[in-house]
Amino acid sequence: MNVPVGSLALVPVQLEPLFGTTISAVLFLAGAALIVAEAFAPGTHFFVLGVALLVAGLVGFLVPPSLGLLAPLILAVAVLATTAVTLWGYRKIDFSAPGRGQSLSSSSLQGQFGTVTERVTESAGQVKLDDGGFNPYYEARSVSGTIEAGTEVLVVDPGGGNVLKVEATATSDDDIDRALERDREESPAEADAESEHA
Length: 198
Fold this sequence. Notes:
Blueprint: E1 17-18, E2 21-22, H1 23-40, H2 46-62, H3 70-92, E3 113-118, E4 126-129, E5 137-142, E6 152-157, E7 163-168, H4 175-197
Parallel strand pairs: 5-7
Antiparallel strand pairs: 1-2, 3-4, 3-6, 4-5, 6-7
């Protein structure tokens, strides 16, 4: 059957077969596959495109063939509207844990506490951050020495969010820690002096 190319634009979307399947079915299946892919790679935004394609497939099944050229326009509006709403919801809703929040940038990781899950050295290791968002596991490198699994650590340098520089909290003394230690040492001496005068 020879169909002129110009008349293909008039064929409704659900009647165009692709490998024996309608375009609507292909869109629906592609959307479902992307939603499943998001479960295996969280944070990749496959969910947004997956929902949009899933809805486009459903709308394609429901659009009557009599609409002709209006059918692709309805699909386009459905995809754009669904994508906008899904992307907005995906960014606003905290799927990891209510109130915990997600990291908006690598700099927000600096100062976070976590626990070593795989021994951290200057060249390898992994930590789980207490407030690490949807996937709290990060590759980590030690500032110096080796940090054993189970040790509490502090993120010193987020390193762009890919590989964190960490140090064990027992060894992380900064100016504030040193000042507090001096106050603790001076406090018992002052208390002894006051008790002698009383």
